[in-house]
């Protein structure tokens, strides 16, 4: 046996053991942890923390996501949290995307995800390649100093950095800072009913506190499992874009429960993670364009029925590109969008398969409530459920 073969044998993982969880059990567990089985009375700040952040490059998305999870949610509550600096629109977090997070979570998690930001900049974008041969750390330091002085747009940052490095692409210089320094987007970006382009600020200047220094992924893994588990190592990596987490999960193994899915893959979970009865009723829920339940597992089978185009894909869903998606009995059932024409607003719902009459009525009721949230400025509202696509 060669040395390489011997090493592979020594590092080969043992067969997965533990009880088998069906796809429906995993579905109900995810919905329970994501607060989608029933709305709850909870402060929006606590919900954002429980969810370990909410993807937010579409500013309205967190409002829809919180509305679907909280009783009597008021958009003004989230706007106040942003202006009071208790939650932040954090740049380059999980999957290098913008996430709405509590200030404390962002400060703690940003150093853990620094490697994701660095990889995204150097290999996942054209910007790193355009700065080959340049001391990127010097660029980041210069950009951070400018943002510590006062918040700036990316365009302003690019212009000022280009004055120092005139032979380099200005956009790439600005993106080096955006990816590699811990930054947030400040209001009015992300406020309900307000508009405003992204303006960047540092942790020190916006929160008066620096980010943490501990880059260990252990706490992040446990937080993920509490919000999304039971899950595989690949699921955790799909959500975070961290790599090589097997060693960290094995280190945590004594603190975790283990299961198997129906395909024999090992699943990990926190000891107190809820596992509801698979027959627990799941009412229709409307989700924003990018929601936690769609983007946080390698295999989307726990939220997509067999044969659904989303079931085995970890890419971005296409059906909800114009608005969002909706669940029926806990599984993806189609997409939605709001169409406006003058004083009239129409919620257009497009199922992927025909809805049973009772499901169609429940979807219509939930959709009407969503339209009241999104089109509160008009009184002429309509809802249309189209033919299955």
What's the arrangement of secondary structure elements?
Layout: H1 3-11, H2 23-33, H3 44-50, E1 54-55, H4 61-67, H5 75-83, E2 87-90, E3 99-102, H6 103-109, H7 114-122, H8 127-130, H9 136-149, E4 152-153, H10 154-164, H11 170-180, E5 183-185, E6 199-202, H12 203-207, H13 218-228, H14 233-240, H15 246-252, E7 257-260, E8 266-269, E9 285-288, H16 292-295, E10 324-328, E11 331-341, E12 344-351, H17 357-374, E13 380-385
Parallel strand pairs: 12-13
Antiparallel strand pairs: 1-3, 2-3, 2-5, 4-6, 5-6, 7-8, 9-10, 10-11, 11-12
Helix pairs in contact: 7-11, 9-11, 10-11
First-residue to last-residue Cα separation: 55 Å
Overall average residue pLDDT? 92
What structural class do helix, strand and pairing data support? alpha+beta
Estimate the global geometry from the Cα principal axes: globular
- Please give the number of β-strands: 13
Number of helices: 17
Radius of gyration: 22 Å
Helix content: 25-40%
Strand percentage: 15-25%
Characterization of this structure:
It is a single chain. This protein has helices at 3-11, 23-33, 44-50, 61-67, 75-83, 103-109, 114-122, 127-130, 136-149, 154-164, 170-180, 203-207, 218-228, 233-240, 246-252, 292-295, 357-374, and strands at residues 54-55, 87-90, 99-102, 152-153, 183-185, 199-202, 257-260, 266-269, 285-288, 324-328, 331-341, 344-351, 380-385. Helices cover 39% and strands 16% of the residues. By secondary structure, the protein is an alpha+beta fold. Helix 9 (136-149) packs across helix 11 and helix 10 (154-164) crosses helix 11 (170-180). The strands form three sheets. A six-stranded antiparallel sheet has the order 1-3-2-5-6-4. The protein has a five-stranded mixed sheet with strand order 9-10-11-12-13. Strands 7-8 form a two-stranded antiparallel ribbon.
């Amino acid at each position: 046996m060669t040395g390489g073969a011997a090493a592979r044998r020594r590092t080969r993982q043992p067969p997965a053991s533990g009880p088998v969880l069906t796809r429906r059990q995993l579905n109900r567990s995810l919905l329970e942890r994501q607060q989608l089985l029933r709305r709850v009375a909870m402060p929006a700040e606590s919900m954002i923390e429980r969810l370990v952040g909410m993807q937010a490059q579409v500013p309205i998305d967190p409002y829809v996501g919180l509305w679907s999870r909280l009783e009597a949610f008021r958009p003004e509550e989230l706007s106040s949290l942003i202006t009071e600096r208790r939650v932040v629109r954090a740049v380059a977090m999980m999957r290098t995307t913008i996430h709405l997070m509590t200030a404390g979570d962002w400060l703690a998690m940003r150093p853990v995800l620094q490697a994701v930001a660095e990889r995204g900049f150097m290999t996942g974008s054209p910007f790193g390649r355009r700065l080959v041969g340049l001391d990127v750390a010097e660029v980041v330091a210069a950009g951070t100093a400018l943002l510590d002085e006062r918040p700036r747009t990316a365009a302003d940052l690019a212009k000022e950095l280009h004055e120092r490095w005139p032979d380099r692409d200005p956009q790439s210089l600005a993106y080096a800072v955006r990816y590699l320094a811990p930054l947030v987007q400040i209001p009015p970006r992300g406020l309900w009913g307000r508009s405003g382009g992204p303006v960047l600020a540092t942790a020190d200047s916006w929160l008066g506190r620096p980010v943490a220094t501990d880059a260990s992924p252990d706490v992040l893994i446990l937080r993920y499992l509490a919000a999304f588990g039971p899950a595989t190592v690949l699921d955790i990596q799909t959500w975070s874009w961290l790599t090589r987490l097997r060693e960290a999960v094995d280190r945590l193994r004594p603190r975790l429960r283990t299961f198997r899915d129906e395909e024999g893959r090992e699943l990990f979970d926190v000891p107190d993670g809820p596992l509801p009865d698979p027959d627990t009723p799941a009412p229709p829920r409307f989700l924003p364009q990018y929601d936690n339940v769609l983007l946080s597992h390698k295999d989307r089978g726990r939220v997509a029925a067999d044969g659904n185009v989303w079931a085995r894909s970890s890419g971005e869903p296409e059906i909800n590109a114009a608005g969002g998606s909706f669940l029926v009995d806990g599984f993806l059932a189609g997409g939605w969008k709001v169409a406006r024409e003058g004083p009239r607003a129409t919620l257009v719902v497009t199922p992927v398969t025909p809805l049973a009459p009772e499901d169609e009525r429940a979807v219509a009721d939930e959709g009407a409530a969503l339209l009241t949230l999104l089109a509160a400025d008009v009184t002429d509202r309509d809802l249309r459920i189209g033919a299955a696509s």
